[in-house]
Each structure stands twice: as structure tokens, then as C-alpha cells.
Amino acid sequence: MSTPIRWIAAAAVLPAALVITGCDKTIDSGDLEKKITENINTQVKQKVKVDCPGDITAKKGKVLTCTITLANGATAKAIVTLQDDNGKFSYTVPSSTGGATTTPTTP
Questions:
Q1: 107 located within any domain
Q2: pLDDT(7) > 90
Q3: Closest to 92 (Cα-Cα) out of 47, 53, 84, 83
Q4: Which distant-in-sequence residues (6+ apart) come within 8 Å of 43 by Cβ?
Q5: Residue 75 falls within a domain, yes or no?
Q6: What is the domain count for the chain?
Q7: pLDDT digit string, tens, across residues 37-57
Q8: 94 FRET partner, CA 20 to 30 A, in 21, 52, 65, 107?
Q9: Domain range for residue 86?
Q10: Helix, strand or coil for residue 91?
Q11: Which alpha helices (DSSP H) does 1-67 contain, by range?
């Protein structure tokens, strides 16, 4: 039984760990991946792997794309938006069929 990617359509607001180097704050991509993975695993009860780019400067409004790989090998994109300069972010996983996404939040 395969799981449609549209099934994992999700959104969340979460904090990520910051690393301060000189004047710039950067997001720890490993922590970002872990938080998105845990959130998706909780919502859909399925193991996923999330890969995000490294060297993410913490700047409000910055948008980046992470790749989600499902257990069956199917992939989806998580669109991540930084909500502030301190590591708070939100993400959505658009439906592969163009349908609506759900919008649960995590405190």
C-alpha cells in the first residue's frame, strides 16, 4: 500500500536552534530537519527523512525548500519560512494534487 504525498500536507510553526557566528545568526539545519521530521511523524504516523540546505542565515521572511522522503521512496517539498531572526519558522507541505493543506500548529 503506497501513501500519497498529498496525505502529508501539513503546516507548523516551530523554533529551531540558532548558531551565532560574528554578527550573523544561522539556523542549525540539522535541528530544523529534526523538528520538521518529528512534526510530520507525529501527524501522519509514518517515518520520513527531511533534508534542508546548510548555512541558513536567520532572517525574517527568508524562504527555503527542504526535501521530504517517505518510507516508500516518494518525495515531497517542505516550503520553510523564517518567522523572525531568532529561529522561529513555519513550513507547509503543498499537496501534490493541488488541494488544500492542513494548518495545525505546534506550541
A1: no
A2: no
A3: 83
A4: 8, 10, 104
A5: yes
A6: 1
A7: 998 888 888 889 999 998 888
A8: 107
A9: 5-92
A10: strand
A11: 29-44
